[in-house]
Amino acid sequence: MTAIWWKSWADFWAMGGQAYFVWMSFGALLVAIVVELLLLRVRRKRALAAIEEERDLEAEN
Amino acid sequence: MNWFHFSSPSTFYGLAGRLAPWFFILATALAAWGLYLGLLVAPTDAQQGEVYRVIFIHVPTAWMSMFLYFIMACYCALTLVFNTRLSAMMARAIAPTGAMFTFIALWTGAFWGRPTWGTYWVWDARLTSELVLLFLYFGYMSLANAFEDPRRGDRAAALLALIGVVNLPIIYFSVQWWNTLHQGSSVSFKGTSMHVTMLTGMLVMSASAWMYAIGATLVRVRSVILERERRAQWIRNLPEASA
Predict the structure, then answer these.
(1) What interface predicted TM-score (ipTM) does this complex get?
(2) Which of B10, B60, B143, B170 makes an SS bond possible with B157, Cβ 3.0 to 4.6 Å?
(3) Are B129 and B101 in contact (CB under 8 A)?
(4) Residue B120: which residues within 8 A CB-CB, separation 6 or more?
(5) Interface membership of A23 toward B (CB under 8 Å)
(6) In DSSP terms, which residues pair with B192 in a beta bridge?
(7) Which of A47-56, B136-145, B215-224 has the lowest mean pLDDT?
(8) Residues in B touching A18 (Cβ below 8 Å)
(9) Which of B54, B97, B223 sits opposite A36 (nearest CB)?
(10) Is pLDDT above 80 for B192?
(11) Average pLDDT in the B116-144 region?
(12) Alpha-carbon distance A30 to B210, whole Å?
């Protein structure tokens, strides 16, 4: 269960002529995960900023 | 151990923050192992050629799309029955990740369908019910945010999520109940028709997807807690909130 199936890296990237369909699938998952992680970071920053804003507002009153 | 201790947002916030990195580490390690097996070691499929390798992400994401909906619906049931705050926050935190996995299951299915069936999309029972699942996630999220009072949003969206549960057996059994272009299950409770390396790779990728989903949910629920409890004193005392 450890032998590499491919003869070369070029062979691997070509995916037997079906590279477009294989990499469009794997690429989409990678993009989706990166986007989700970025959105998670943005949401946390916004939530923390909102807490600060509200505290400042109360301090002014 | 008192589990109810962690059912309060203030204690769960800290726990979720400590646990999340470990789930991401596990997800990364499992993904590395699963992709190694699936993309580098597993042999070509005799009928389909190399495009079958989409299975290593298509099946795990499709499974997760249904698992996550089920777990979200369980939290919704808790919300409606016991009116617990954390369960509603968890349901809200799961939905976007569930929608992401549903979208990827549909997308990878399309790019697998084109070379094998000759079409990106067909209105067959499996594909259509999975598309309905994506709309259920979207519906849940928009309904949850449609109210001025978030607790009302929690309850209205929870009701929608629970009604939507009927779609899960429809997705699962669609390949048996109707004549679909989509193939039947390769893996079932009775056994499998797959090569051992392929099966191992797919299960490892599924474990990775689980770990990622838990990690992402834990990170998101912390933001939901910050948004919902922002007037509470314990939030203001947090080191990250006191600049």
Answers:
(1) 0.93
(2) B143
(3) no
(4) B110, B111, B113, B114
(5) no
(6) B187
(7) A47-56
(8) 49-51, 115
(9) B97
(10) no
(11) 96
(12) 16
